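Anyone up for a design puzzle?
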């Protein structure tokens, strides 16, 4: 699980969106009209994490955040978010990088102080992603502007202790062994809608993020449906992800 201070910072500044694979439960499954090759990077616990002091971790995370802001400004880092109590205990979070090759993705990730210090290691998967993903910085900027206007009008009360700041929300991330099979099953079942989905280029699997917060509720909704093998994890990201549905024809 990512450092608590990172949960807010990771997502506040990012244009963090992907393509919405279906706008509502029961809609027919469909493929994106345009796909591009990108990279999904898993940040996992690195070999130096256990030996870093709290002060060292604070410095590492500060550099980590600054580097993320730089990559986002360069439109290389398009999405990021931490896991919450993932099935794989080594998983800390993900990056989606606009990098067509693993080599480019590793070069970009290597500029992160968290990676350079050994706090994180990385695992890279090549993915096919919707081209609309490149619109995510605009969607996040629009959300930020709305939140600033609400704040100026006094329409946004301060978050309650333990709650998420405005603009952030929890999702459920599904890793499916057969992406199209899972997508079709979700569309047919009374299951939460797909917010975004990408497919792995080296097998039939992929990742879908669902409009839900509780993995157990998703499992119940999919009970008895032919999804193929899958796993569910809690995941945190920006609410601006929801705007992608309007970008699909």
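Challenge accepted. My sequence:
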């Amino acid at each position: 699980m990512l450092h608590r201070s990172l949960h807010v910072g990771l997502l506040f500044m990012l244009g963090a969106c992907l393509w919405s694979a279906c706008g509502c439960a029961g809609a027919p499954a469909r493929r994106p009209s345009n796909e591009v090759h990108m990279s999904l990077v898993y940040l996992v616990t690195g070999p130096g994490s256990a030996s870093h002091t709290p002060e060292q971790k604070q410095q590492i995370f500060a550099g980590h955040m600054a580097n993320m802001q730089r990559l986002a400004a360069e439109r290389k880092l398009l999405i990021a978010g931490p896991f919450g109590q993932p099935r794989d205990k080594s998983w800390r979070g993900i990056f989606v990088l606009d990098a067509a090759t693993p080599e480019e993705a590793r070069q970009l990730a290597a500029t992160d102080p968290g990676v350079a210090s050994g706090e994180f290691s990385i695992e890279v998967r090549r993915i096919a992603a919707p081209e609309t993903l490149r619109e995510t910085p605009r969607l996040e900027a629009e959300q930020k502007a709305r939140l600033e206007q609400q704040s100026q009008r006094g329409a946004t009360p301060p978050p309650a202790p333990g709650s998420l700041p405005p603009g952030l929300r929890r999702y459920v991330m599904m890793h499916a062994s057969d992406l199209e099979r899972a997508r079709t099953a979700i569309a047919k079942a009374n299951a939460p809608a797909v917010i975004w989905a990408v497919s792995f280029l080296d097998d039939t699997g992929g990742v879908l993020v669902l409009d839900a917060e509780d993995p157990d509720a998703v499992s119940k909704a999919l009970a008895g449906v032919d999804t193929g093998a899958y796993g569910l994890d809690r995941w945190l990201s920006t609410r601006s992800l929801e705007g992608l549905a309007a970008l699909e024809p």
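A detail worth pointing out: DSSP finds seven helices and eight strands in the chain.
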